[in-house]
Amino acid sequence: MLKVEEIETVPYEGQQPGTSGLRKKVKVFLQKNYVENFIQSILNVNEELEGCTLVVGGDGRYLVKEVVDTIIKICAGNGVGKLIIGQNGLLSTPAVSHLIRKNETLGGIILTASHNPGGVDNDFGIKFNTSNGGPAPDGVTNEIYRHSTIIKSYKIVPNIKCDITTIGITRFKIEEKDFVVEVIDSVKDYLDYMKEIFNFPLIKTLLEGSDDKKKFNILIDSMNGVTGPYVKRIFVDELGATENNLRRVVPMEDFGGIHPDPNLTYAEDLVKEVRKGDYDFGAAFDGDGDRNMILGRGAMFVTPADSLAILASWLHVIPYFQRTGVKGFARSMPTAAAVDRVAKDMGKEMFEVPTGWKYFGNLMDADRLSLCGEESFGTGSDHIREKDGVWAALAWLNVIAHSGLSVKELLMKHWRKYGRNYFARHDFEECSLDSCRQLMSDLERTVTAEGFVGSKHYIQDVENAVVAADNFSYMDPIDRSVALNQGIRLVFENGSRIIYRLSGTGSQGATLRVYLEAYTPCDGDIHMSTEERLESLVTLAMRFGRVRKYTGRDKPTVIT
Ligand code: G6P
Ligand code: ZN
C-alpha cells in the first residue's frame, strides 16, 4: 500500500504569482522543495480538494515532465481523487482550459512560462486555473502566495510510480483511498471542440482548392512549442493541408533556442518565409499555444487589435456564434481601440479591462462577453477561458473561406469602414526594477499634477490637448473587485493614446512597455507606415516618461 508522508519545509520568498502564474528561472524551481511548496500552497487554497479532479499539462519545456511527476505525488498525498494528464505531460494552455470545463474539474495546473524562452538556463512557470477554466483570479493567487509564506510542511506519496508516456488509466490505493491518473491524448478533445466551433468542411475546401479555385496556401509556425501536435492533426489530418504548410512542429524542451513569441521580432523567420513564398496566409503561436500572429500575402501584418476588430465584425459566419449569438466585446486597456467602433456599430456592450486574460473570465461567465483580445497577441472567445492561438487562426480561415476575401481585402474593407488605429508597443527590456518603478511614480506625479490635462503638444505638426491622464484602475462589473495601478494612460483630443506599464510576466529585472496608438478616420490617410504615423507620439512618450534617464536606453529593445 502507498503511504502519505508529511515532509517539513520552510517558506521561500517571492512565490507571488504574476500576470500569469509563478514564473522564474529554471534554477529557482530546482531548489529543494521549491516546487513542492508551491504545489502544496495551490492545493491548500482549495477547500473541496478531497476526491476532486484536476487537469495537469504543460508546454513541453524543460522541467515539465519532472514537475508533472511531483504534482502526481503531492496530489496523491493530499486526497485528490483523479488527475487528467496530457500524454508526456503535453497540453496547450487552451486545451487545459477546455478539459477543465468539459470534465467539470476543480481546476488545472499548467506548467508553462508561455512565450518566455525555455531550457535549463531559461524560464519555467506554474499556473493554477480554476473550475471555470480560466486563470485563477487575484483573490485566489493572493491566497496561494499567502500560503507559500507560511508553509511548514507538504504531503507527498514518494513511492508512487506513474508512466505518463502511455495513454490509459492507472488506479492507485493510497491509504485506503482511490487515486486515479488518466493519461489522455493531448489533442483529441481540443480537436473535437474546434470541429464543433468552426465550419471544417468549408475551411477544407479553401485549403485544398477546387476546380475553379486555387489552393489557399498557408504556413503555420508552432515555433517548436506545444501546438505542433495540434496543428498536425488539425491542419494536415483534418483540413487537407500538407506537411509543407507547417513549420517547427516538434515540441522541444528549449524551443530550439528561440524565443517562442509570435510577433514581428521573434517570429521574423516566419515573416521572411511568408514574404518570399507563395503564401496567402501565415500564422504563428507561442510556446503554450495561447498567443497568435496573423499574416496575409506578402507577410502583411495584422495587428492584434485589428484582428480582434475584424473577427468581431465577422463573427456571424462562425457556427459557434451562430448558435450562441454574439454578446459583448472586450479588450485590455493598452490594446488599440479598433473593436470599440465595431461594438458601437453593432450595438454591443464593450469592456475595457486591465492587462491579463483573467479579467475577461467573469464577464464571460456572466454571459456578457463573446470575443476579446489583447495587444500582446491574444485573441479568444467564451468557448474557453484562455486566449487561444489555433482557434484564432481557424477563425480567420473560417472568415476567409466564407467571405472569399483575402487577408488584405478584409483589412482594407475594415479600415475603409471604421478607420484605422495605428498601434505599436515599444519594450525596454531588462532594466532595473527600481528605476522603472521610479519612472512610473514620477510620471504619475507629472501627469496627475494640475495643468497637465489641458496642456497642448504637437502630434504630426498639429497641436493637441491632453484630455485625460490617470493610472488606470478597474472595477469588475460582476464581482466588484478592484484592480489599481494598471498602467499610466494619456489620452489626447484627437484620440491618440500613450500608455506606460511595467510587464508582469518577466522572470528577472523589469520591462517597461510603452504603448502608442493614433486613430485615423476612414476618410484620412489609412495607408501610412505605422512608424511614420506614430513618430511624434514616440517623441512625446520618451519625453514625458524621461525614459532615457530611467532605463538608460534611447531606443526600445523590441517593437511589436
Ligand atoms: C500573459 C497574459 C496576457 C497578458 C500578458 C501581459 O500573456 O496571459 O493576458 O496580456 O501576459 O504580459 P506583460 O508582460 O505585459 O505583463
Ligand atoms: Zn502563452
Automatic annotation (TrEMBL):
Annotated ranges, domain Alpha-D-phosphohexomutase alpha/beta/alpha: 15-151, 189-295, 324-418
InterPro entries: A-D-PHexomutase_a/b/a-I, A-D-PHexomutase_a/b/a-I/II/III, A-D-PHexomutase_a/b/a-II, A-D-PHexomutase_a/b/a-III, A-D-PHexomutase_C_sf, A-D-PHexomutase_CS, Alpha-D-phosphohexomutase_SF, PGM
Keywords from the UniProt entry: Carbohydrate metabolism, Glucose metabolism, Isomerase, Magnesium, Metal-binding, Phosphoprotein
One Gene Ontology cellular component annotation held by this UniProt entry: cytosol
PROSITE patterns in the record: PGM_PMM
TM region(s), chain numbering: none
Needed co-factor(s): Mg(2+)
Reactions catalysed, as given in the entry: alpha-D-glucose 1,6-bisphosphate + L-seryl-[protein] = O-phospho-L-seryl-[protein] + alpha-D-glucose 6-phosphate; alpha-D-glucose 1-phosphate = alpha-D-glucose 6-phosphate; O-phospho-L-seryl-[protein] + alpha-D-glucose 1-phosphate = alpha-D-glucose 1,6-bisphosphate + L-seryl-[protein]
Keyword Metal-binding attributed: yes
Gene Ontology terms, MF aspect: magnesium ion binding; phosphoglucomutase activity
GO BP annotations listed: glucose metabolic process
Enzyme Commission identifier(s): 5.4.2.2
Pfam families: PGM1_C_vert_fung, PGM_PMM_I, PGM_PMM_II, PGM_PMM_III
Similarity remark: Belongs to the phosphohexose mutase family.
PANTHER family in UniProt: PHOSPHOGLUCOMUTASE (PTHR22573:SF2), PHOSPHOHEXOMUTASE FAMILY MEMBER (PTHR22573)
Name by which UniProt lists this protein: phosphoglucomutase (alpha-D-glucose-1,6-bisphosphate-dependent)
Organism: Danaus chrysippus (African queen)
Taxonomic lineage: Eukaryota, Metazoa, Ecdysozoa, Arthropoda, Hexapoda
